[in-house]
Amino acid sequence: MPSSSLIPSDSSVLLTTAGMQQFKPYYTGKADALKDFGSVNVTSAQKCFRTSDIESVGDDTHLTFFEMLGNFSFTVSSEASSEGGAGYFKKEAIKLAYEFVVDILGVSPERIYVTVFGGDHEVPEDKESFNIWHKDMGISAHRIKKCGRGDNFWGPTGAEGPCGPTTEIYVASTAALANDSKGVEIWNIVFNEYYSKIDKTLDKLSQPGVDTGMGLERLATVLQGVPNVFETDLFHPLVSKIREVSDNIDERIVRILADHLRAVIFLVADGLLPSNKEAGYILRRLLRRILVYEIKYDIHADLFPLAIEVVGNNFGGDYPEVNNKKLIAGVLSEEKSKFEKALANGLKEIEKYKEITAKDAFYIYETFGLPFELLGELVPVKVKNLKKEDFEQEFKKHQEISRAGLEKKFGGHGLVMDTGELKVSSEEEMEKVIRLHTATHLLQRALRDALGPSAHQMGSDITAERARFDFSFNRKLTEEEIKKIEDAVNEVIGKDLPVYFKEMPKEEAIMTGALFFFKEKYPDVVKVYFVGPAGGAGGEPYSAEFCGGPHVANTFKIGKIKISKQESVGSGVRRIRISLV
């Protein structure tokens, strides 16, 4: 299976953190792998991003963005098994892993150490895995270590989902062998035997599955015989270029720059834009950390275009999205310009303080866009007594105040009654807004039909006078394209198609192919609004989107729309306005 986007369909997480993320429904029986893939056993090389490792970047192995090699065996019914769809579990998974590492990669068995789950009050010791490694694979008992939940129990990704005990494979270097050390962890084999609920209690899965993850960068470190991930051929070209344009920078800073530069390029290539919330904030934080280091260490070269070229050359053959150099450069350049203005104004403000409190730090962040983490880089003396949890408490207070003003919210479109983006003073105005709201669903489908699937919603704002719709696209639309989109929407309106919704579990809704606003956090049960069927093959609906409503009962009630204006709201994002005519 190809890698899924770093921007996940699973709204319980901000970014794709593991290879199994796109396969979660197949472990719980909500989706049928045999039907969808023709097999219950698949492999992938998945782009991943973990925010939990940001502070560890700079050592020998930790990264934010990385590639995860994985093989998976999903839950399968007895009927499917009889049809040739049999999966595999612990014995087969361990045997496959051992054969790959020893027979295919050529790693000496004497260099292999493994860990298994040692058990706790809730989950028993994984004696089966221990015995497979020791008795079947021939790994001596002293090279099999039993570990606790923190090391050898994985999952879930997000708030809930499949999880279970793990066995990990380490490969020791010659030096590590001399000290009887485990070496570098290259492979984590997860046995999904449980489902972790929201309250963190575990239910036994009726059918277990296998989920493995092998970090490509760590594997390359072992196979290429280099001391750390940054000396592998995956990183060395970028690291060398950074060293070339900077003088006497600490090796840890070079590594951080290399990691962050590669990470932001892949995030932007997948359609993420810098912002002050959620995944966009992670991107902004990395970008601004790079820029602070450029200033702090007096790096005169502009690292962004340099890195875009190197990363494109190194990864563009496997990930064509990073070849979109002009779009990526535009986003990074614009963020740099914004940061330079914010930094200049923020530094003037910071001069006023002898010591910065949590309240001061939040004011500086909210007003000048300088994240908490950057204060430690810019003015460490002024924040020496400031704790991150105190800053986060101030942030939480602000969020609660903001939420208090929102009485009724509809879906992920920014459609809010009586406050916020939507202000109506009469039933007549509300009726116009509802018509425009339904029109935005038709508009998104028409945009994707005309411009391709990369055109996806980035936000919207609806009043009684007009609807504003932001979407990802890297150039100005032609007059012909605007007319084509407008005509397509009006043609669907004229067909008098029914508009209706179905409530269903979120995972099931995702599998229908319904579009949703990736920034929004959806509940476990969602509404999917359908427009149609459109009378095409199989009676497929014209539009299907996650949404809370409200909508017109049929498209004819919308009337007719006019695209009145288009504009840019940042690199890679366009805005169009529609009104009723």
Estimated radius of gyration: 26 Å
CATH architecture of the domain at 21-231: 2-Layer Sandwich
Helix content: 25-40%
Structural class: alpha+beta
At the fourth level of CATH, the homologous superfamily of the domain at 21-231 is Bira Bifunctional Protein, Domain 2
Low-confidence regions? 77-84, 402-413, 415-423, 534-538
The 3D shape can be described as globular
How many strands appear in the DSSP assignment? 17
Q: Give the distance, in angstroms, between the N- and C-terminal Cα atoms.
A: 46 Å
Helical run tally: 19
CATH topology (level 3) name of the domain at 21-231: BirA Bifunctional Protein, domain 2
Estimated share of beta-strand residues: 15-25%
Rounded average pLDDT: 85
Largest sheet: 8 strands, mixed
Oligomer: single chain
CATH classification, class level of the domain at 21-231: Alpha Beta
